[in-house]
Amino acid sequence: MSLTVNHLSCLMGGRLILENIDGLVARPGEITALIGPNGAGKSTLLKGIAGLEHVAAGSRITLDGQALGNSALAPRAEHLYYLPQQLGSSSALNVFEAILLARRTRRKESGRQGLYRVRDMLRALELEEMAERPLATLSGGERQRVALAQAMVREPRALLLDEPTSALDLHHQLQVLDWLSRRAQETSTIVVMAIHDLSLAARFAAHLWVLKEGHGVACGSPGDVLTPARLREVYAIEAHVEWPENEPPRITPLTATRRLGI
Amino acid sequence: MTSVTPGTTHRVDSIDRYLARRRWHLLLLAGMTALVLLTFLADVAIGPGRYSLGEVFSALLSPGQATDVLAVVVWEIRLPVASMAVLVGGALALAGAEMQTILDNPLADPFTLGISSAASFGAALAIVLGWGLVPLAGTLLVTGNAFVLAMLATLSIWGISRLRGVSVQTMVLMGIAIMFFFNALLGLMQYLASSEALQQLVFWSLGSLAKASWGKVGLLLLSVALCTTIFLQARWRLTALRLGDLHARAMGIDVGRLRMTVLLCCSLLAATAVAFAGTIGFVGLVGPHIARLLVGEDQRIFLPMAALCGALIMSLTSILSKTLIPGILFPVGIVTALIGLPFFVSLILRSRKELW
């Protein structure tokens, strides 16, 4: 029971964005973090898994043992949900309507079941006070929390999050990720999350996938993956890595190994 | 079912608020329907022939007992015109509402995207040169041409959208290019036209409900009913488009196919309306905006509200065009713009909500 990716390649406009990504596994009930520098192909990989980007023949993606391939969007979106990084919306839809919409595009249901689920999400993410505000009036962070509520209200089997905390302040980053990891555990959901903040990744993810320039570099537990040598190889930085007992890991970037300049 | 943590009190219950808001929207919808019905009846009651309200309504309810002249005036002239006004307004507003939705652009409507210009050029071909694009009898020559060219204009926007990597912005720009292209051709036709044909052409391009008939009303009703059904079936998917393409696709929506279906429906609506009533701007743009101000963008409510707003505007316009100066029938296209625009601008400035 898991999400697996094997031999996945992805071509866009004749350019190879992902090349033979192999042996990735994401298990239910825990967060798998997808890390790597800009342009490594993190978003493309998530979109490829979600079926939003065409993957090359021979790529093999399975969810709970079932091969997904390039299957049609609609049936796929019942089990998988990709949360985009860019949430461009100037819509007059209000927060409640937007979350209900996410629910209704997933399943037809009568009665108030859907409404209750929407309210649960609003309360869980402390959004109920702004339930009637149009999306266009929300701040970036509020919009991101609404998007997360939209994702969770669909109750997907696997959730693919593209930098879900990029617009959040420190308080909300910790709060949201803590909630997400508890929800994943309670509902036994597979969560794969692209994220830039390595400390957050180390703290909340049980498993890491590392990408660089379209290649899979490493795959394993944070302790195995996040070593100074690996960070130098992947990010070209010198970093200080600490794993204190009974405390969250500390990853402190020190310097970039290459400097800009003429 | 609910997951309220014990001990916490919630100042608002979002479900209650949501349901209250929905009730209010349904009430608005009912009110708007009543208003349209009222203006429709007023449109039937008012006209150059000085009949009293009682006479008109008794002719409506029991046509057998009215005098022949009155029965003809009410049943063959005023009712088709009034029905046409409501349907043309509804059709243009529906087309505008969905074009704005699928093209993600608040300025999209059949007029700004060149569909009306194309239709005018088609009409000009018939009026000035006597060319018919469809094998039709004389009276429908103008209508047939207008319809064919309006469909052609939309299909070319759609055709462009099929090319790889074409964004909705490109589609909108394409529409604007089409508008300029057909306006230039229309200008050429006007330059070539005899003074008699020119007068006819100008009259047509200003929009008119005067040539309404039951046949046209029936055809228009058919296309409005068909497209409304298709739109309502796609109501959640259309609402999801407002979140952006990627987000909508992530929800499992085939965005390209939805856009194509809806664009074809819009072209049918706009082409039928313009072919029968000439170019009428403003309604397709403004009807949806007023609806959005009133009820937001949940398509379940927004869609019927946009149609009703369009119907109300055209129905009021039809009344005004008869009553502004008694004895003179103004072209409806002029009235919508002159009377409607200041009203619309004041509405936008007053609300100042971020609508787009």
Automatic annotation (TrEMBL), chain A:
Keywords: ATP-binding, Nucleotide-binding. InterPro entries: AAA+_ATPase, ABC_transporter-like_ATP-bd, ABC_transporter-like_CS, P-loop_NTPase. GO terms for molecular function: ATP binding; ATP hydrolysis activity. Residues 3-238 form the ABC transporter domain. SUPFAM superfamilies: P-loop containing nucleoside triphosphate hydrolases. It comes from the Bacteria. The keyword Magnesium does not apply. PANTHER family: ABC TRANSPORTER ATP-BINDING PROTEIN (PTHR42794:SF2), HEMIN IMPORT ATP-BINDING PROTEIN HMUV (PTHR42794). This is Iron complex transport system ATP-binding protein.
Automatic annotation (TrEMBL), chain B:
It is found in: Cell membrane. The keyword Transmembrane helix applies. InterPro entries: ABC_BtuC-like, ABC_transptr_permease_BtuC. It comes from the Bacteria. GO terms for biological process: siderophore-iron import into cell. Keywords: Cell membrane, Membrane, Transmembrane, Transmembrane helix, Transport. It is a multi-pass membrane protein. It holds the Pfam family FecCD. GO terms for cellular component: plasma membrane. Its main location: membrane. Belongs to the binding-protein-dependent transport system permease family. FecCD subfamily. This is Iron complex transport system permease protein. It comes from Modicisalibacter ilicicola DSM 19980.
